[in-house]
Design goal:
Structural class: mainly alpha
Order of helices and strands: HEE
InterPro entries: NVEALA (IPR025905)
Keywords: Signal
Protein name: NVEALA protein
Number of domains: 2
Pfam families: NVEALA
Strand content: 5-15%
Length: 73
């Protein structure tokens, strides 16, 4: 009887740990796919923001800082 209880506990621990490992992998896969979609997305979809300070962008979002490329013109 004692041997059966120990075997049952080992099986339970193995089952829970395998289930936990598969759940963690699923979250990692979703995060990876979200990052790939963000990198592949069109950057112009965020609108154009020009100016300094509290700027209202073309998509209606206010931002504190903007980034623009350096030009020698």
């Amino acid at each position: 009887m004692k041997k059966t209880g120990v075997l049952l506990m080992v099986a339970l621990v193995a089952t829970v740990s395998m289930w936990s490992a598969f759940q963690h992998k699923k979250v990692s896969d979703e995060l990876l796919l979200s990052n790939i979609e963000a990198l592949a997305g069109n950057e112009s979809a965020y609108g154009n923001c020009f100016g300094d300070g509290n700027v209202l962008c073309s998509n209606g979002i206010r931002v504190a800082y903007t980034y623009s490329n350096f030009h020698l013109e």
